[in-house]
Amino acid sequence: MIGIVVSGHINFASGMESAVRAIAGEQQQMTYVDFVETMSTDELELALRQAAADVDSGDGVLFLTDIPGGSPANRALAILMDTPNIELIGGANLPMIANAAFERDDADLTELVDTLLDIGMSCMKDMRRELNSMMAQPTEFECEDGL
Hints:
single chain, 147 residues, alpha/beta, Rossmann fold, 4-stranded parallel β-sheet, 6 helices, elongated, transferase, cytoplasm, PTS_EIIA_man-typ_sf, PTS_IIA_man
């Protein structure tokens, strides 16, 4: 099973952990690393390296971080550069993280990255535009009882 490490600024990771647990239940080989104010970036990288080692069963590890170019993404990128079978998605959102729990059993690491990117992009919606589109479509109502 692909290991997952979620990381982000302040309580991003722990917030995602509680949301994923509510949606997908407790997950094996999935861990969360918050980058809090008291932590240096070197400490963050050590925590990320340990987290990756903890969840890696040989099928690879996927880092999901909050902001591309932020410290969690940059430190995960350093790990990707010197560790085999590691991938990283920066800018992860809750649909991506929750679906990672469901999709990782039936995919290899590259396929999982592609699937999660598709999910993440497709889940972003301009809700006013969506509403206007639905309201513009004619609706036919059928009543079986003739009313």
